[in-house]
Write a structure and sequence with these properties.
Oligomer: single chain
Number of helices: 13
CATH architecture of the largest domain: 3-Layer(aba) Sandwich
Strand order of the largest sheet: 2-8-7-6-5-3-4
Low-confidence stretches: 1-20, 429-454
Largest sheet: 7 strands, mixed
CATH topology of the largest domain: Aspartate Aminotransferase, domain 2
Length: 454
C-alpha cells in the first residue's frame, strides 16, 4: 500500500498547564518545628514530582488520535508513526529513525541488529534499564567510571576496562549532559568495537559540530512519560546506517518483510498510532518545554547559590542542554545534613525528590553478585551517595521552586538541631538493598541461542 505523508498541521500556540492542576505551594516556613516530618503541615497539598509529564497541544493530540480511529489504523506502521520517525530523524540529525514501543527495546534491538556478543563497557551511573537491556540480550555489562565534570563515561576509564572480550561501548548522555562522543568513537575505531549511545535523557541536547543522533553506530532515545518529550511510552533508534535501520525495523515486527514472509527472528516492539500522536505533539512543543526548563534551571541556580553544602550541578552551556534534570550535590560536611535526611524532609513536604540512580547498577542485582570484580568507580559512588534530583518541567511553576529552595535552606541552616531529631542510619530500612544475601547469575559471555522459546 502506498503511503502518503499527511501535510503537517499549522503549529498552534502551546498552552501552559492551568495553575489549578499544579501542586499549590503553601506559605514559607520559618522554623524547623514547621517541617512536616516533625509534625507540621506539608508545604504542598499535592505531590510535586520529579518527571511529571510535559503535555503538548491537547487538541492536536486528540485530533490525530481521532483520525487514527476514523481510519481504523491503530498500529503497524501507520501514518503518524512514519511522520514521527521522519520528524525525529530531522530533529536529531540522523538519516534513519526506527520508532519502538519503549527505549529499552530500542536498545535491545540495536544491540541485536549489530550482532553483539561479549562485554559492553558502559557507566554504572545510569538507569538500570541500560544494563538490563544488554544483559537480556546475553551481553555482559562491564562498568567504567564517569568523568567528574561531564558525569558521563570517561573515555580513559573505558579504555582501561575494555579487554579481549569487549564487543562494544555504550555511552550514556546523562541528565541533559552529553558524552565525549569524539573520544569514544576514536576508542571504538582503535579497538574495532561497536559504539552505541543512550540518549534517553538527551533529546534537545546538542554538541558542537555534530548532531546528537548521528553519533556512533546508533543512538537510542526514550519517549517515556517522564522524558522532556514523550509519547506516553515509546522509544527510537536513530542511525546513519541504512542496513542497521532495516534490520531493526524488521526485528520490531517479528522479522516480517512482507505480509506473510518472515526472514529473521523478531519481536513485537512497534509504536502505536496513539503513542505517535502524543509524540508528534511533544515534538511540536519541544522548544517550549526546553525554554521552561531553562527558566527553572536559572531559578534553582539563583535561589540555591548561597546555601552552604548544596551545589547545583551546573551546566557549562545551558543553551546546549534540555535542562530537564535538576541535580544537586549535598556535601554533609558543609551542609550539616546528608542527602538522605534532606530527601526525607522534602518528601514529607510533598516534594518527591529522587536519588537518581542510587545505588548504582554495579550495586544492584544481578550485577553485584558477579564473580568477576568491576573496576573501581570512585566518582560514580561519590555522586550516587550525594546527588538529589529536584522537580522541574512545565508542571513546576516558579513559586514552587522558590518554596523548595527555601525548604532546603531552612534544613541546612538548622541542620545541627535537626540531627538529633531525625531517624538514625540504623532506622533507615528503606536504604537497605533488597535481596540481601541472594545471588543472581548473568549469562556467560556470548549470546544465548536464538531459539523461538527465548
Amino acid at each position: 500500500m502506498a503511503y502518503e505523508r499527511p501535510e503537517p498541521a499549522a503549529p498552534k500556540p502551546i498552552r501552559r498547564i492551568p495553575l489549578g492542576l499544579m501542586p499549590r505551594p503553601g506559605r514559607l516556613k520559618s522554623s524547623p518545628e514547621e517541617f512536616a516530618l516533625l509534625g507540621g503541615e506539608p508545604a504542598f497539598s499535592e505531590p510535586l514530582r520529579v518527571g511529571r509529564p510535559n503535555v503538548g497541544d491537547r487538541e492536536a493530540i486528540l485530533r490525530r488520535i481521532a483520525d487514527a480511529l476514523d481510519r481504523r489504523w491503530l498500529t503497524n506502521d501507520g501514518r503518524y508513526v512514519r511522520e514521527f520517525e521522519q520528524r525525529l530523524a530531522e530533529a536529531v540529525g540522523a538519516r534513519h529513525c526506527v520508532a519502538t514501543c519503549n527505549g529499552t527495546l530500542a536498545l535491545q534491538l540495536a544491540a541485536r541488529a549489530l550482532d553483539l556478543r561479549g562485554e559492553v563497557v558502559m557507566p554504572s551511573l545510569t538507569f538500570v534499564a541500560s544494563a538490563h537491556a544488554l544483559a537480556w540480550e546475553g551481553l555482559v555489562p562491564a562498568f567504567a567510571d564517569v568523568n567528574p565534570r561531564s558525569l558521563c563515561i570517561d573515555p580513559g576509564r573505558a579504555a582501561a576496562v575494555a579487554g579481549p572480550g569487549t564487543a562494544a561501548l555504550l555511552g550514556v548522555h546523562l541528565w541533559g549532559r552529553t558524552c565525549d562522543v569524539e573520544a569514544l568513537e576514536a576508542l571504538a575505531r582503535d579497538r574495532g568495537l561497536a559504539v552505541l549511545f543512550d540518549a534517553a535523557q538527551a533529546l534537545g541536547c546538542s554538541r558542537p559540530g555534530k548532531p546528537i543522533g548521528a553519533c556512533g553506530d546508533a543512538t537510542i532515545f526514550s519517549f517515556h512519560a517522564t522524558k522532556v518529550a514523550n509519547s506516553f511510552e515509546g522509544g527510537a533508534i536513530a542511525t546513519d546506517d541504512p542496513g542497521l535501520a532495516e534490520r531493526a525495523a524488521r526485528m520490531r515486527n517479528f522479522g516480517f518483510v512482507d505480509e506473510d514472509i518472515v526472514v529473521s527472528l523478531g519481536t513485537n516492539a512497534k509504536m502505536s498510532e496513539p503513542a505517535a500522536a502524543m509524540g508528534l505533539a511533544s515534538l511540536d512543543a519541544l522548544d517550549h518545554f526546553i525554554e521552561h526548563n531553562r527558566e527553572n534551571y536559572e531559578h534553582y541556580r539563583r535561589w540555591l547559590a548561597d546555601v552552604p553544602g548544596v551545589e547545583l550541578l551546573s551546566l557549562q552551556r545551558p543553551e546546549s542542554s534540555n535542562c530537564h534534570y535538576i541535580e544537586v550535590e549535598i556535601d554533609p560536611g558543609i551542609a550539616g545534613i546528608d542527602r538522605d535526611d534532606l530527601q526525607r524532609l522534602l518528601v514529607a513536604e510533598n516534594v518527591l525528590a529522587r536519588r537518581y540512580f542510587h545505588p548504582g547498577c554495579h550495586r544492584m542485582e544481578p550485577y553485584r553478585s558477579r564473580s568477576d570484580p568491576h573496576a573501581p568507580l570512585p566518582v560514580t559512588e561519590h555522586l550516587l551517595d550525594r546527588c538529589l534530583s529536584l522537580p522541574t518541567g512545565t508542571a513546576t511553576p516558579q513559586e514552587a521552586i522558590k518554596l523548595v529552595c527555601q525548604l532546603i535552606e531552612l534544613a541546612v541552616s538548622h541542620a545541627a538541631g535537626l540531627a538529633t531529631r531525625l531517624p538514625t542510619a540504623a532506622d533507615r530500612t528503606a536504604d537497605r538493598l533488597p535481596g540481601a544475601g541472594e545471588t543472581c547469575e548473568l549469562p556467560e559471555v556470548g549470546r544465548l541461542d536464538d531459539t523461538p522459546s527465548r
